[in-house]
Write a structure and sequence with these properties.
Layout: H1 10-14, E1 20-24, H2 29-40, E2 44-49, H3 52-62, E3 68-72, H4 78-92, E4 97-100, H5 115-143, E5 150-155, H6 172-192, E6 197-204, H7 213-226, H8 235-246, E7 257-260
Parallel strand pairs: 1-2, 1-4, 2-3, 4-5, 5-6, 6-7
């Protein structure tokens, strides 16, 4: 007789129906795609964004796909994080999946790079992730079991793995913050494993989003040449990794950083434009 642990059906391995999730930065770009993907797989989702207007627009987009709610909250502000955590606990009681996706970037030459810009990026991409995750551990722990851990999924970047040059303008704080986020993910994995909470990071390459509009407009052919697959990413390629990490199939994956960049972070590419 086949044991439950030897049932490798797709629904058992990857099914997420009935789980709960919070996606920060979930009103646009990859965050919106991830929220939609979770909804389409039966997850009850709450998204967060600084803008009430963006929350309303995202709700209109996402409502046809499932159980969705939105909270306008700037995760870099303590009061806003407290509001968000209260909303999560009131709506769900416990939390199965936390997706830390909210992010910021700043590009400028070294001698012109402002302290305020560096601090803003680090605050959004690293400090806020730590603070929100720390304060949501009780909600994550309430949902966690040995067989079904709660999941923290941090959205890092391939720029935290290699030094980006294709956009021509240095993004010192972004690269530093994402590299730090990757290592924070590993530290959280070690710290929270005993509470049956896993922590992993996804390191996307170039995907279409507001953050990449400028570089796509000016350097898309260079970006494609720099990637061994000679293209940019597609939404399902991020959603698929998220679904894996959030599912039974990913329950023993802990402390990893998964690049989803077509191999860009390990390739020198053509880079003829650097000559």
């Amino acid at each position: 007789m086949e044991s439950a642990s030897e049932n490798f059906a797709i629904d058992r391995l990857f099914g997420l129906s009935g789980k709960t999730a919070l996606v920060t930065g979930g009103t646009s770009g990859l965050g919106l795609h991830m929220a939609k993907g979770l909804l389409q797989n039966g997850v009850k989702v709450m998204i967060a964004s600084r803008s009430e207007d963006k929350c309303a627009q995202a709700l209109e987009t996402l409502t046809p796909f499932g159980d969705i709610d939105a909270v306008a909250a700037d995760v870099t502000k303590q009061e806003a994080r407290a509001k968000l955590i209260t909303a999560v606990e009131a709506r769900f009681g416990s939390l199965d999946i936390l997706v830390n996706n909210a992010g910021a970037n700043w590009g400028a030459p070294l001698k012109e790079y402002p302290d305020a810009g560096f601090a803003k990026v680090m605050d959004t991409n690293l400090n806020a992730v730590f603070a929100l995750t720390r304060d949501l551990v009780p909600a994550l722990a309430r949902a966690a079991t040995t067989d079904s851990p709660s999941r923290i999924v941090n959205i890092g970047s391939m720029d935290g793995i290699h030094v980006p040059i294709v956009q021509r303008v240095p993004t010192f704080a972004y690269s530093a913050s994402k590299a730090a986020l990757h290592h924070l993910t590993k530290a959280l994995a070690v710290e929270l494993g005993a509470q049956h909470i896993t922590a992993n990071a996804i390191a996307p390459g170039f995907f279409e989003s507001k953050m990449t509009d400028h570089v796509f407009e000016h350097y898309l052919s260079d970006i494609e040449d720099d990637c061994p697959l000679h293209r940019v990413g597609r939404p399902e390629e991020i959603v698929g990794i998220l679904v894996y990490l959030a599912s039974r199939a990913g329950s023993y994956t802990n402390g990893t950083v998964i690049p989803v960049d077509g191999g860009t972070s390990i390739s020198k590419g053509k880079r003829e434009w650097t000559l």
